Amino acid sequence: MPVIRPADNAEQVEHVMGLLRLLGEAQEVSSLSTALRAVAEVASLLTDATEAGVFVAEEESGLMRMVASHGLGLVAAGDNSVFVLGIVPWLASEDSRFVTADEGEVELRTAPAAFRKGSFWTPLVQGGQTVGWLVVAGLSDGPPDSTRLKFLRLTAIHATTLIRGMRAQTALNLRVEALTTLAEVGQTLASTLDLDRVLRLIVDGVARLSDATACSIMLLDESRETLRIRMAIGVPEEVVRTAVRKIGEGISGRVAQTGEPVFLRNIADATGGLRGCNPDRYRSPSLVSLPLRSRGQVIGVLNVNDKREGDFSAEDVNLIMLFANQAAFAIDNARLHDQLWQASVTDGLTQTFVHAHFQRRLKELVSAAAVGQDSLAVIMMDIDFFKKVNDQFGHPIGDVVLQGVAALLRRAVRSNDVVARYGGEEFVLILSKVPYRVVLAVAERLRKAVEAATFGARENPVRITASFGVAMMPADATEGTELIRLADENLYASKRGGRNRVTSSDAVRHLAELELAPATASGRVERAGSPGTEVDC
């Protein structure tokens, strides 16, 4: 065979078998870099070159990056990636080229030193476009002869076929994985209303399929003026807890404001007009930020950044958009369910929980308190002489008073406490894991707040007072219905004692005093050894 150095037939056969073996290995492997490494070795053997390499154009930027080599002595396969060719006009041509030392030092400064002199460059052409180069170097006798050149071009065609096939396979695998993940998200959506679970699936899927290390979903708050992170992967916990973006601020704020996606190849080139944007916090320059839309409105932003290698591609962006649509649907679905649930458990007039929901929550919280050996308080409250309010001012003003008292109660307790309308002008609260002295202080603070408040029109304000009864677990009872009964008895003890006061049992009062020792309790708090027996302290 003329392309092999002169030798006896056995040596020629051995070389041919070696070439065929390498080409076969290149066809079988699943890694493009491994396959092209075999191609580089074939090219080296065919031309008696001491070094060989394969450059491939990045699909988005078009820059030529070396992905495989032979004879360069690189320690690891990843070392190839540091060689990215600058903009050289002839790199876009379809003509082979022999590079002399003078040309190479000027045009190929970012290529390996061996490729800058006495190297032969063969284009990898696909669909009329040069997608890479097969390079052989160390050719002391000049360009390959015509026979070797033909085999080199055949090898280049083989390399192009490998690139096309593996890119198509990669794209197909990515699409299959994306559809599988989207199907999983859809199945989860159909089987659960747990928004956090669905959003976790989405950020995990986006990060995995786009090869990103960071992904977050930010949602607008009720004011629609501020974005906060609801779910994230690859973002420090402190950032998740504290990150806030106002509308128009930073990249996320801009996307929320305009409703337009942002796709940046280099964030440093696009931060001039973005307040609150800090490019130093990103480990790689490429970033994707997409609006989450529901019913024609932007409800949040999906951010994806810190791709492990290279920049995000148009295919990545299209994929992320699919997940953005799923995220928006999940959020809308969960919010709709929450609205329906709220409507079913909330009193329409006062926006407090209804009696049935109060009973369910009391049962749950009593069980939890028993397991954790925690305190639990039930505070019952009744507006004094409410019938007189309706008789004197009319029922519409009575409704205003009820709404005002309910709002006052909701503001005065924690978000995890329960405030419910027990019936008519009577309200009930459940406070979990609160010391005895604090419960009594809260009840007294509520009493004073009701007494000081005015309701209705400013020119004709309505003033009221309220009576309170407190029962606590475990001091008074260890069962829900008994807590309600004792709180109700203490409430009516307050009524009989003159109204506008708080009544609790001797046991609760004693434990509260122990918690305060050696200091004495302050404020107007009553205690009842039995219903109807109040003692000022």
What's the helix and strand layout?
Blueprint: H1 9-28, H2 32-47, E1 51-57, E2 64-70, E3 97-99, H3 101-107, E4 119-126, E5 129-137, H4 146-191, H5 195-210, E6 212-220, E7 226-233, H6 237-242, E8 244-246, H7 250-258, E9 262-264, E10 287-294, E11 297-307, H8 314-345, H9 355-372, E12 376-383, H10 386-393, H11 395-412, E13 418-423, E14 426-432, H12 436-452, E15 466-473, H13 480-496, E16 502-505, H14 506-516, E17 526-528, E18 534-535
Walk me through the structure.
By secondary structure, the chain is an alpha+beta fold. It folds into three domains: 9-169, GAF domain (Beta-Lactamase), CATH 3.30.450.40; 192-341, GAF domain (Beta-Lactamase, 2-Layer Sandwich); 355-535, Reverse transcriptase/Diguanylate cyclase domain (Alpha-Beta Plaits, 2-Layer Sandwich). The chain is built from 14 helices and 18 strands. A seven-stranded mixed sheet has the order 13-14-12-15-16-17-18, with helices on both faces. It has a six-stranded antiparallel sheet with strand order 8-7-6-11-10-9, with helices on both faces.
